[in-house]
Amino acid sequence: MNFLPTEEQRMAVEGFTRFLETELRPIVERYQPDKLIEKELMLEIFQKMLPYGMGGNGIIAEEHGGLGMPWLTYALMYEQLARVSGDVAISLLIQQLGAYSLEVCPNVAMREKYLPRMVRAEIIACSGISEPGVGSNVAEVTCRAQRDGDHYIVTGEKTWISNGHYSDFCMVILRTSKEGSGAISMILVDRAEHGYDWWTAPNTATKVATSTSWGSTAHQPHNCSSTARAYRPRT
Q1: Rounded Cα–Cα distance for residues 99 and 117 (Å)
Q2: Directed axis angle between helix 71-84 and helix 86-104, to 10°?
């Protein structure tokens, strides 16, 4: 089996690397070592990387507005991004995973509402997983969603939320009213429509807009949720 990159992959990586050195490096050097990149500039960076498939659109299928890039090609290019700027790389990692979560979500209305804007790098996503006293152990999360008519009431607190400061919405891993293996779900909480707050503890580094804590008591329509499940990525 040949594990060497193809000619197409080498060309993609080389072209993206030239972009990173000429376009991105001068920007991020202005923000080193501890200055936070503003949201507007981060979105501009994502938008400039869209032609290379590195703005949140890369692994998303063409039918959903992405480039349908193979994961290996994406990984090779992402490696170069991380070499130039760990800050932008981490922010993009969360952004791309947010877009992918929307793509594989069975809720068509939610996908159609948010995914087109994600692949155009118009909005920024974050993921709410870690919690105080629980860490990233998903099986032990205490954040809850309680059904209330045609809505869920989401209550709880999350910590160490990369992109939390930037985010327009949060994909929250939480516990529904039932227990057992089907108790863990993912619900999208929109900052403008449903509301959540973020705050950062003193002396906490925030170069990638990581919110130390995230809290919400949000009313969320029940059709904006999906049960967490495993999906097999495209190769």
Answers
A1: 9
A2: 150
* 63-83 burial: b if 16+ Cβ within 10 Å, else e: ebbbbebbeebbebbbebbee
What span, in angstroms and rounded, lies between the C-alpha atoms of 221 and 62?
A: 29
Peptide linkage before 33 cis (omega within 30 of 0): yes
Type of residue numbered 17:
T
In this predicted model, what pLDDT tens digit does every residue of 183-223 receive, in sequence order?
888 889 899 888 777 776 544 443 444 444 455 544 444 44
Strands (E), 129-183: 144-148, 151-161, 169-175
Residue type, 229: R
3-state secondary structure of 193: coil
DSSP category for residue 177: S
Cβ atoms < 10 Å from Cβ of 7: 8
Task: Give tens-digit pLDDT for 152-193.
Answer: 888 888 888 889 889 999 999 988 866 665 788 888 989 988
Spatial distance between the Cα atoms of 145 and 218, rounded to a whole number of angstroms: 9
